[in-house]
Structure formats: C-alpha cells, structure tokens
Amino acid sequence: MGGTIVVRGGRPLYGTAQVPAAKNSVLPLLAASLLCAGPVRLRGVPRLSDVESCLALLRAAGCAAGWDGGDVVVSGRAACCRLPAGETARLRASVLFAAPLLAKLGRAETALPGGCRIGARPVDWHLAALERMGARVEQAAQRLLLTAPAGLHGAEIRLPGPSVGATETVLLAGCAARGQTRLQGAAMEPEIVDLARFLNQCGGCVRGAGTAEIVIEGGRPLHGTAYDPMPDRICASTLACAAAAARGWVTVAGCAPGLYAPVLDILEQAGCRVLRSAQSATVGCAGGLRGAGRLVTGGYPALATDAAPLVAAALLTARGQTVIEDRVFEARFGCAGGFAALGAAVRTMRGGRELWIEGAGARPLHGAQMAAGDLRGGAALVVAALAAEGESRIAGCGYIDRGYPALEQMLARLGARICREMPPEAPD
Ligand code: EPZ
C-alpha cells in the first residue's frame, strides 16, 4: 500500500484489538515449507508485503504459493535454485530460503538480503554454519552462490552471538542434513520455538528450541501440514504502547502477556494499569506517566529490540528521563528525528546505540510531518503522533506495511482519528 498515514492526535483509545499471526514466524515457516513433500497450509496469515515477497520467492523456486482466504498454501517441489535479486533484496528473511534450496537442489543462487536499515546486518554466521555442514559459499558483489553436491551433513556449530536468523538457518539445514546437528549459542526467541514446533509437526526432530542448545536429528522426510503460526508479540507491544501514548483502556487480545512481558512491565512501572490474563492484556492509562530510567534491549526474554522504538514513543510525554540502549542493532533509533519534530526532547548517543528521552511531562507534543525509515521506527512515529495535539503526517508507510496489516485501521477501530492517504495514481 504505502502512502502517508495522517493522525489527529489527542484522543484516547478504547476497545479490544486482536493480535495477528507473527510476521517473524510466518516468514521462516514459508522458507521451511520448501523442505516439505506435501502441501503446507499456514492458517490466519496477515496480508503483509513481506509475506507477499516470500510467496514470490516460493513461486520463483517453482512452488505453487498463494492465498486461500486468510490462509497461505504452499505446494509442489522446489525446481529452480535461482532466486530473483529484486525480491531477495526486499527483505532480510530471504536469506532463510538458501538452506532449504541448497538441501533440496544441491545449489542455491541468491543475493545478499535486504531488510530494514537498523544496522549492518551481515549474514556471515548463516554462511559459516552452512559451510560447517558441507556447503561451499562463493560471494561476488551482491550475489551469493552456495553449492553442496554431496548434500549437507550434521555438524557441531557454535554461533558467535544469539542470532535469530542464523539459528533458523541451522534448524532448516539441520532437518535436511544427514545425521545430528548440535547448535550452541542459539537464539531463544519464541519464533524459533514456533519454527521447531512446525518442523516437528512435519515429521522432523528438533529438541531444545527456546534454549541456547538445540539438537536436530536430520534426514527425516518432512511431510506437509496445516499450522497456526504464533501471535505477533511486537504487534501486541505496539498496541500496548499505543494505549499508553494516547491514554485510554485497550485490551490486546490473542497474545499471551508473557511473550512481551518486558514491555508490559515497563508500562506498568511508568504508571499504566496492566491487567494480565492467559491470552490477553489490558493496558489502561488515564494520567501522566513517569520516565522508565535506563532500559536495555537483548535477546529473548529481555526487552526485544523491535519493541524499543515503540516503548520510546509511549514515554515521550512521561515526566522524567528514559534512556534506551539497543544492544542488538547499531542504528535502531532512526525514528529519533521524527520524535524531535513532534517536539519531544530526544537525542541519540553512543553512535546511535542509545536514545535519551527527557520526558515532555506536562508539555504536549504537537503535530508534525515525518517519514518512516524502517518498520518499527515507522510504527513508533504513528504511536507517538497519537499523543500529539493537531495533525501529524507519516510518509513512507510502505515500511510499516511490511509488518502490520493496515496499522491505521487497527488503531481507528480503537477510536483513533487516523487514515491513510495514497498518492494519486499516474494516468495510463
Ligand atoms: C530477526 O532479524 C527479526 N527479523 C528482526 O525483526 C529482529 O529485530 C531481530 O531478529 C532481533 O530480534 C526476522 O525475524 C525476519 P539477528 P535477524 O540475526 O534474524 C548480528 C522486524 O522489525 N548478526 O538476530 O536478521 C546482527 O547484525 C525485524 O520485524 C551478525 O553479525 O536478526 C545483529 O547485530 C527487524 N551476523 C545481531 O546479530 C549474522 O550472520 C542479531 O541479529 C547474523 C546476525
């Protein structure tokens, strides 16, 4: 969709919002479907541009992949090892398609992945893990050529850091490889657990997902399945932060509060009421908030890096200081310029690793023109604009569409004055 989101802030939010399935689970599941002999149905998938990009990659690989109502269905076998550079450059998750193609066809030709510009984001750990499993990697400019004519074999792998994507690459390669793979230093994010659950439901054998050591018994044939991807904890965090920023009383339904516990805890400490039940959380905020002091992001179960700009947006009008250090990505706070345009007293420190917020307190934010520069930063600008008096315009909403199925409609249903303007269509 793209275009500009227009917000008239200053109105509290009330009601219940349903959390969609997690983008960061659906994308690896789509890559995993390349390993399955029968059809895969993912139920209740949100219409996101990143999902569309993955469907295009699956079709380029020779599969049938498309929508059946709200589900996504993938069938057929991979027949083509070459992925189009344009599509791979659109998103980071395209790197996850390399291991299944390599395992199935002995060769994968792809390009360095794109994705949000929140840091350097190399793929060296993915490639090193695949090399340990028998792959040969050649890199020329932006192109990657991976070959494994004798197939992949199990290996002992230790990741230099708990990378979500590299852990997913090892899970995918390990299931298709001969013998056992033991992965140490694995990421422990719930999306890894979801991928392992999917692979096991298809006949694979992955143990230890959700801990730092994962053991995969490879070589078992994987069949198709129907699967419900986990809920999107970052979308849930977005809705909770929106309730705090705009004030009001919002129930975030369909996502266990434990999946984004740090966000709820921070909002509670800042002065929100938070009511938790098994599959929902209600965030209430009537009066002023307090700054949260020093916050640090990290791998699960710490505060998620993706949630950092959203928490910041909620605390721009708090009384007192909040400092957020992102320990995962170097350039997470590209949204700081937009926050400043709204009148917030913010600055980035330590080369962009830290965002300092001197809470506006009683001083209100005012509407401004801003541009989304990445997915979560863009959503954070929308959340911040809910707290600003007057009209705000957030351009570049194509970034936001990567991870939210019509964010403005989700917020409008809660009472926000928000809409989207599309540029006029060019005449034929
Ligand atoms: C996933 O990205 C998510 N994307 C990101 O969400 C999320 O921010 C991130 O994990 C951290 O939770 C998807 O799941 C599609 P990493 P990923 O590998 O896998 C370094 C969103 O908004 N690293 O865990 O790319 C890397 O530079 C997106 O939904 C290497 O150095 O993240 C980073 O500093 C944005 N070499 C750190 O590890 C590698 O080969 C963690 O990155 C791999 C990673």
TrEMBL record:
Chemical reaction(s) catalysed: phosphoenolpyruvate + UDP-N-acetyl-alpha-D-glucosamine = UDP-N-acetyl-3-O-(1-carboxyvinyl)-alpha-D-glucosamine + phosphate
Any GO CC annotation of this UniProt entry: cytoplasm
Annotated EC: 2.5.1.7
Main localization (coarse): cytoplasm
Keyword terms: Cell cycle, Cell division, Cell shape, Cell wall biogenesis/degradation, Cytoplasm, Peptidoglycan synthesis, Transferase
Gene3D superfamilies: Enolpyruvate transferase domain
Domain Enolpyruvate transferase: 7-410
GO biological process assignments: cell division; cell wall organization; peptidoglycan biosynthetic process; regulation of cell shape
Superkingdom, taxonomy of origin: Bacteria
Pfam families: EPSP_synthase (PF00275)
Coiled-coil region list: none
Example of a GO MF term: UDP-N-acetylglucosamine 1-carboxyvinyltransferase activity
Keyword Cell division included in the entry's annotation: yes
Pathway note: Cell wall biogenesis; peptidoglycan biosynthesis
Keyword S-adenosyl-L-methionine in annotation: no
Subcellular localization(s) per the UniProt record: Cytoplasm
Annotated PANTHER family: UDP-N-ACETYLGLUCOSAMINE 1-CARBOXYVINYLTRANSFERASE
Family statement drawn from the similarity comment of this UniProt entry: Belongs to the EPSP synthase family. MurA subfamily.
Name of the protein in its database record: UDP-N-acetylglucosamine 1-carboxyvinyltransferase
Organism: Candidatus Faecalibacterium faecigallinarum
